[in-house]
Specification:
The protein is mainly α. The protein has helices spanning 16-46, 51-67, 69-78, 81-105, 110-134, 144-173, 175-193, 212-225, 227-257, 261-281, 283-290, 292-305, 309-315, 319-350, 356-385, 387-401, 403-406, 416-419. It is 80% helix and 0% strand. It is globular, with a radius of gyration of 21 Å.
Length: 423
């Protein structure tokens, strides 16, 4: 387990370097959320893309998670993670800057946007893999829970704030300006990362003589053989699959039955995000009081089961149903936010430092790959049986995701020593 030369500072923050890492993460997350809203509007309003062209842009945005994750996981374990993070932020910032300048000065063909979006997505995969693997080299292992809780709560807060900020910028100043703001956040993030001091282990000289595929298989083999990491991945994959079905059903239901459907849907998502912020903030306290296993399992029981209440609200649309749905989403966000920070910490502690990048890549390939499959399933269920059934199927599937943890060694973990070196 990597430790840092800079001692953890007493008080709320694990270290000065972690403050810079947190600032970089918060800045880039805010930009990402702005871009998530502004990018499709940029394609539709500025480039006048058709519905089919917009779909191609969305495919290009998420394709790197399916085709590049394993390969980039090998790269993360071969190179310095801090350096890769800086490259990823600079790459995204510069590409977005070029997109905006070309679109405003000469016009941007849709194929160029598709290529640029794919490249941005590739840098995003790299950034997420490197970020996960860098944190244990920035803070002492006994402060990982607090550090992950702070990062997770910030991520939840940015998901709430970013969409609102992006909407205001697009409405007042146009979509290209919103993308320019997104580019600026990545460049600021890269600067903040230069201030981070990380004690990263040197890579062995013989690593270049090992094939990339052999290294990738090592990450996959660890994920398959370590029950703690594997069960967390299976829970996340099941939940992601079910959540895609639930979200599509909820979106269709709200837009169909309520006059202010888009605004109401936005409020629901903000309620879930607010719950996630609170859950992440309390994650460290819950871990210290109840241990990893018990608090994580309880949080998942709440977070994964609460969406079932949306089934009953879909049966009888009304103001009361919206209130119930709001509380259900707050509860769901709270449980998922609390469990999320703990799950990341457990994965970091259970995985050898030299395998962090590859194991995280295998984990994300499994769990995030199910998002694309879930989206396909969501369209089929909603088309064949309607939004209400989609909500029911998604709610039941999310609830069943907890089953992976209920029968797993994860629920028996008590402290850091139990989580470290599990098999």
């Amino acid at each position: 387990m990597a430790v840092v030369s800079e001692a953890a500072a007493p008080g709320r923050w694990p270290s000065r370097s972690f403050r810079w890492l947190w600032a970089a993460s918060a800045t880039s997350l805010l930009g990402s959320e702005i871009g998530e809203l502004a990018l499709p509007l940029f394609a539709l309003l500025t480039l006048e893309a058709s519905a089919g062209e917009l779909a191609i842009v969305r495919v290009a945005q998420f394709a790197p998670f399916l085709v590049l994750t394993i390969a980039l996981g090998v790269l993360v374990d071969r190179m310095r993670r801090k350096r890769l993070l800086i490259v990823a932020d600079l790459g995204r910032g510069l590409i977005l800057t070029v997109i905006v300048c070309v679109a405003l000065l000469a016009g941007l063909p849709i194929w160029a946007l598709v290529a640029a979006v794919f490249a941005i997505g590739a840098f995003t995969v790299l950034a997420q893999l490197a970020d996960f693997s860098l944190l244990p080299a920035v803070v002492p292992y006994d402060r990982l829970t607090d550090a992950n809780a702070r990062l997770t709560s910030t991520q939840s807060a940015m998901s709430v704030a970013g969409s609102g900020v992006g909407g205001v910028i697009v409405q007042a100043l146009t979509a290209p300006i919103a993308l320019a703001a997104n580019a600026a956040t990545y460049l600021f993030s890269a600067f903040f990362l230069t201030r981070v001091s990380a004690s990263e282990p040197a890579r062995p000289d013989q690593i270049d003589r090992v094939s990339a595929w052999a290294e990738a298989r090592a990450g996959l083999a660890f994920l398959r053989g370590n029950r703690v990491v594997r069960d967390l991945a299976l829970e996340a994959a099941t939940w992601n699959f079910a959540n895609e079905i639930l979200l599509l059903g909820l979106t269709l239901h709200v837009v169909e039955h309520y006059e202010l459907g888009p605004a109401i849907l936005g409020g629901m998502l903000m309620a879930s995000g607010a719950g996630a912020v609170l859950g992440a903030l309390l994650s460290g306290r819950a871990t210290r009081r109840f241990g990893y296993g018990r608090s994580l399992t309880a949080a998942l029981l709440v977070g994964n089961t609460a969406p079932l209440a949306l089934t009953f609200t879909a049966a009888a649309p009304s103001v009361a149903a919206l209130v119930v749905a709001g509380f259900a989403l707050i509860a769901s966000g709270f449980g998922i936010g609390l469990a999320g920070a703990q799950a990341v910490t457990v994965r970091q502690l259970a995985t050898p430092a030299e395998l962090l990048g590859r194991v995280n890549a295998a984990y994300r390939f499994l769990s995030w790959g199910m998002i694309a499959i879930g989206a396909i399933a969501a369209g089929f269920v909603a088309t064949a049986w309607g939004p209400g059934i989609a909500i029911l199927v998604g709610g039941v599937g999310a609830t069943l995701a907890t089953g992976w943890i209920m029968t797993s060694p994860v629920r028996k973990l008590r402290g850091i020593d139990d989580a470290a070196g599990t098999s």
